[in-house]
Amino acid sequence: MLNPFRKHPELIVHGAHPLNAEPPLPKLRAHYLTPQDLLYVRSHGDIPRLDGAAHRVSVGGRVAREVSLSLADVRAMPPRTVRAVMQCAGNRRADMRAVRPVKGDPWAAGAIGCADWTGAPLAAVLEAAGAETGEGLHVAFTSADTCQPSDGGAPYGVSLPMGKALHPDTLVAYAMNGEPLAAEHGFPLRVVAPGWAGVRSPKWLSAVTVQDRPSEAHQQAGDYKLYPSDMQPETEDLARGLTIDAMPLNSAVTEPAAGAALKAGRLVVKGYAVSTDRGIIRVDLSGDGGRTWSQAEIEDHGSSRWGWTFWHGALDLPPGEHEICARAWDAAGQTQPALPDDTWNFKGYLSAAWHRVRVTAA
Q: Do the Cβ atoms of 348 and 337 come closer than 8 Å?
């Protein structure tokens, strides 16, 4: 069975080959659980069209016995459903790009979504092969896609440290929101590593290897590093890069849109906030660039360790130009930096400053 490609016609396409696209923010915010056709698409090569009945995932390396698992084999394991955000490490890169040039696609705030992922715990897949699980080991993944030369030119590969691999919420998933994975989202099997950058949740999984070191594939060893702000592409030094795993506290205004012409008076502002696994306790909203603040109302969509938070609030805007800002606070009392300048890096990763939207009221 081949799973069809189901890209939403309104996705904003940043690149067609490979496909990289995100939804318009009002469309994204219209659903607490992001529909498959509205989840951002991040590809490093052509999207493979795999036969779900024939596809196999090998499990090897430091294991008692090598196994080859079919989709049916994974589905036969005790299932687990985890509500979790999937987010690109480059989400909101456009904000850093406005400071000075950065590498990569100019993602706005839509390279993110939240879904109910269903699959077998990765721990159960490892157990089926009698995998070693000692401290210091890593679980490496190889995917069925071949990346573009600029992204390594080889099959996509990343890894998780054993501790994250064994977390009960880390899955080998086959369904999103109760539906089989669409082709662009990893059919037939993908990894879901909640709270971590989407790069650590590889799609089109074809091999799992237990080993004593992180993956040597380009995506793990040569990319997705957070570099200091003084580094430029020509001075890139892998030794100074921090491997991106957990994602930072973040928030975004999804309505109104940047550049909107609005009627003066009361305006309802909507958005999302997200943290790795700590709850969002407050979202502040400003209509004057952060000089004064009011609190937005946090919406109740149920409790979820790895989910996101929807919020809304009202501002009174007199005639003129305004800069709407949002900032979130987590359960540890941490908040976002004020400016993208504060965390600028030449790859535009982990952009999480106050989200700013300029509008005009008349």
A: no
Best CATH choice for the domain 250-361 from the list 3.10.129.10, 1.10.760.10, 3.30.1330.60, 2.60.40.650: 2.60.40.650
Q: What is the mean pLDDT of residues 244-264?
A: 97
Indicate the pTM of the whole model. 0.96
Longest dimension (CA), the chain: 70
Q: Render pLDDT for 292-309 as a digit per residue (tens, 0 to 9).
A: 999 999 999 998 999 999
The owner of tokens 């929101």 is: 177
The pLDDT-based confidence of 9 (bands split at 50, 70, 90) is confident
Are 139 and 125 spatial neighbours (Cβ–Cβ below 8 Å)? no
CB 125 within 8 A of CB 111: no
Those residues whose C-beta lies under 8 Å from the C-beta of residue 258, and which sit 6 or more positions away, are 357, 358, 359
**Rounded to whole angstroms, how far apart are CA atoms 298 and 310?**
6
Write out the residue limits of the CATH 2.60.40.650 domain(s) in the chain.
Answer: 250-361
